[in-house]
Amino acid sequence: MTMDNGFFKNIEKKTGVNMKDVFELANSLQHANFKDEKTVRNVIKKVSRLANKPVSRDLEDQIVKTIINDGSKLDFNTISNMINKK
Questions:
Q1: What is the DSSP letter of 71?
Q2: Which of 2, 26, 37, 70 is most solvent-facing, going by the fewest CB within 10 Å?
Q3: What CA–CA distance (Å, rounded) separates 82 from 62?
């Protein structure tokens, strides 16, 4: 699958999100330690940038607490949904 695939270009056009960045984030999540607060905060910041949704310190704290307590159920959609709810 190449990055110039029409499917991904359509997603980029509709969302404004660079698919290369999404794939890089997904790769970084595969081996991330979601019990480590610093790692979790970095992931939240990356997702926030990709989604172009600023995250307040309070919301970041809430997300960190949720992820650290239940990191086994974490994926890109979970973080994205948490950011988009606020």
A1: G
A2: 2
A3: 9
Report the domain count for the chain. Answer: 1
What's the burial of 57, exposed, middle or buried (CB within 10 Å: 0-12/13-18/19+)? Answer: exposed
Q: Collect contacts of 54-60 with beta carbons under 8 A, ≥24 apart.
A: 55/83, 55/86, 56/86, 59/83, 59/86
Residues with Cβ < 8 Å from 53, sequence gap 6 or more? 83, 84
Chain position carrying tokens 């709810």: 85
**Average pLDDT, consecutive stretches of 10 residues, N- to C-terminus, the chain (86 residues):** 68 80 83 88 88 90 87 66 67
